Amino acid sequence: MKAWYFSTIERKLRYGDDRDIAIGATHTVEGDPVPCEHGLHGSVKILDALQYAPGPVVWEVELGGKMVEHEDHDKWAATERIYLSGGIDITDTLRAFARRCALDVAELWAMPTIVRQYLETGEKSIRDAANRDAADRAAAWAAANRDAVRDSVRDSAWDAAWTAANRDAARAAAWAAANRAAARAAADAAGAAGAAAGAAAQDSAGAAAGAAAWNKYNSWLESMVLEIIK
Known about the structure:
The protein is of the alpha+beta class. The chain has helices at residues 46-51, 91-104, 113-121, 127-144, 148-163, 172-197, 202-229, and strands at 2-7, 26-28, 40-42, 57-69, 76-89. The protein has 2 domains: 2-89, no CATH class; 92-229. It has 7 helices and 5 strands, in the order E-E-E-H-E-E-H-H-H-H-H-H.
């Protein structure tokens, strides 16, 4: 089964295994796979794989042998994993993806002009100024708006724009921030859609919108990554 997997920049297996990861390599493990406990993991959707990423290096893999799906249907554990392509540090791509997610919900919060400018351009020279402006605006808005949907949307834009964009000193933060950005953007867009549909229909409308948003963001990220590794 084709899947996606993320590794650290050291490109080694974790948890004391330390085998090298490389294109063309095949790793196997003994015993029955148990998601999150034992086995070689991967996710069919790249956005699902990003939730579990220990670092920013992406791989296209083939899972085989014995396989067990996680109860949340977002990853598989297997006894065999072959590394087909990738092995690339996509930190910059994840930052761009996070900015794109933030812009996708831009109309749902009072985004300062300089924040939008940074999200649209990724220009590092304006990032610090945009960060300060966004921090001030977000703090004021959080104090004035306690509506659950609005707060969650504000958090989405904040995480996407600034947790993702302001961690140049630590590459690992890029994938973590992009993960939160995508997940929250999808969930928050769903929440807003549900609220607009009315309280009685909020849960079902939100769930449907959330699934659609997740698939959309997954398609975005997959397309961006495939342009790099193909």
